[in-house]
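Progress report, Aim 2. The chain analyzed during this reporting quarter is listed below.
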Amino acid sequence: MAKISTDEVDREILRALRDDGRMSLVQLAARVGLSQTPCKRRLQRLEESGLISGYMARIDRKAAGFGITAFVSVELERQDGDEIAEFQKKVSRFDEVITGTLMTGAQDFLLEIVVGSLEEFETFLQTKLLRISGIRAVRSRFALRKFIDRARIP
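Predicted structure tokens for the chain:
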């Protein structure tokens, strides 16, 4: 995917929406110093280009009952395309997995898992993840505290 060209006004629109994705077009235009019509055109261009890929609410995990975050690295027995695709397909069905990343190096995948308790994590491992065939090794690490949580890009 090619880098999408932006200017300072576009970046200001992105910063404003990052801070408050629910602001109205009137509020957005005022914040970035444009009238509504050019602001709307720029916003549509950013959306159509894919730079803005969607809008969502940020949910507090602890408040929602998911106080445990685990990072699980998975190594497959074979790293051919079919095995990788099959693993990704199966893992994408698990609600507990909130991010899945194909990695380089000794681990093939890094999964971010959220659950309510250590017991729920154990159940997830035993009844879901470890039932996928072709896994050579699984290593889990638990997050103690998040100290940076940026919803922005540099």
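The mean pLDDT is 93. The first helix runs from residue 8 to 19. These observations will guide the mutagenesis work planned for the next reporting period.
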